Amino acid sequence: MEGKKREKTPPVAEEKERDGSSEIDLKYKNGREVGKGGLLGVFIGLAIIVPGVSGSAVAIIFRLYEKLLYAFGNLLRRFGKCVRFLIPIAIGAVVGVACGFFSVRLLLKILPFAIVSLFAGLMIGAFPAVTDQLKGERATPQRKVLFAVGFLIPVAVALLSVILSEGARTLENLNVGHYILFLLLGYAVAITQVVPGLSATALLMLFGYFAPLMSSVSLTFWKQSPGIFAVYGCLVVGFLVGLLTFSRFLSGLIGRRRAPTFYTVAGLSLGSAVTMFFNPDMAEVYRGWGQSGFPVWEFLLGIALFAGGVFASYRLVQIERKKS
Question: If you average pLDDT over every residue of the chain, what do you get?
Fold first, then answer.
C-alpha cells in the first residue's frame, strides 16, 4: 500500500511543493486562443516603444499572465511545452515592435497627447481585469499598503526619469563598465515586461539610453558604429537571463502569496496608467504647449480617444469574463 501511494505522487508534484509553483496547462485550445496570444505579443512589443504601455497588464486581461510567467520561468526545464506557448506571443511581439517603430512613434510625434490618451484609456478600461484577481480576498491594512506601494513605484520611476535624467547619452567610446551596465539594464527591462505597471521606456529614459538606442536602429548607424551590436548583445543576454530568473521567482511568489502579490500588481497597473501622462516624452510635449500655445483640438481629440479606449478595453474585459 505504501508503495502504491508513493507511485501516485509524481516527481513534478514534489517539485511544485519545493518551489511553491504549480503545474500549468499551456496548450492553446483553439485558433482563437492562439490569436489572443499573438495580440498579447503585439502589446508586449509596443510596451518597449510606448511609455506606460504594460504587456503584463494585457496578459492579465486575457487571463494569460500566470501562463506567461510559467512559460518564461520554466523555459529551460520544459522547453518544448513552453516554446509552443510562446511562439504566437513572440511573433506578435515582433509585429508590435515593428508597428511601434514605423507607425506609433510617428503618430506620437504628430499627435502625442491624443495617442497617449488612447493607450491610457485602454489601460484604465482594462484595470477591472486586474481587480478581478482580488475577488473574495479581504482588503487588510497590509494589502492596502502593498497596493499603495505598487501605485507609487511607477510614479516614482516616472518622476525620477523626468527630474534626474541627464538627457541622451552616447553609444560611442564605451568601456567595460558600460557593457556591464547594459547587461544590468537588459535584466531590468526584462523585469518591466513581467511586472505590470513598470515601463521599459521610462527605465531607459531614466538612464538616458532610450533615444540613443532608438536612433541606433538604422543601416547608416550600423555601418558607422558596428560596435553597437555588442551593446545589443549585452542587452539581449541580460534580458533573457532576467526573463528566466525573475519570471520563475514571480510565478513562485504568486503560488505562495497570491493575494498580496496581486494587490501589489493592481497598484502597479493603476500607477502605470497615470504615468503615461507624465514621463520625459510627455514633459517635452507640455513644454512645447507652453511655448507654442495650448492645442485645443488635440486635447479634445485626446479626450475622445481616451473615452473610446476605456470603452473598448472594458468591453473586452466583459467578454473575457463571460467566456471564462
Answer: 81
